[in-house]
Amino acid sequence: MASVGPSAASTQPALPSGPAVFKTIPYAFILPEIICGTWVWILVAATSVSLPLLQGWVMYVSLTSCLISLLLLLSYLLGFHKNSENWKVLDSLYHGTTAILYMSAAVLQANATINSEFSTNGPLNYQLNSAASFFAFVTTFLYILHAFSIYYQ
């Protein structure tokens, strides 16, 4: 009779709860995503918005992603996932979708930065838009890293 080995569910790494979230690689990206995303919407809000349609999308993506990521971080800290495999799928899908949305927002913010270079609002507006573009691309990179590290875990 063949011996029964460990089941596939037991070989999967456990989802972290509590402070262990900050020590586990894929989940440790959530806090930097929130911080960089917060910088994006603060910097965009600080500019005199010359292209409301472009920067409105940037504000929507950054604020919504920041709030959903904060809720996801709180759910991991409080252990709502109960080590379910569905949370990994949800996490991977959320971060993959958000990475695509953030890439579109980062490109639109870069376009707004280029357009603000020659505006009459001065160099401060250009510098704020440049910083917002930088943080938007950094945040996009963090979401991509998180999505792929969950997927390949």
From TrEMBL:
One of its GO terms (cellular component) is membrane. Residues 21-153 form the MARVEL domain. Keywords: Membrane, Transmembrane, Transmembrane helix. The chain crosses the membrane at residues 27-51, 57-80, 92-112, 132-152. Its main location: membrane. InterPro entries: MAL, Marvel, MARVEL-CKLF_proteins. It is found in: Membrane. It is a multi-pass membrane protein. This is MALL protein. It comes from Dicrurus megarhynchus.
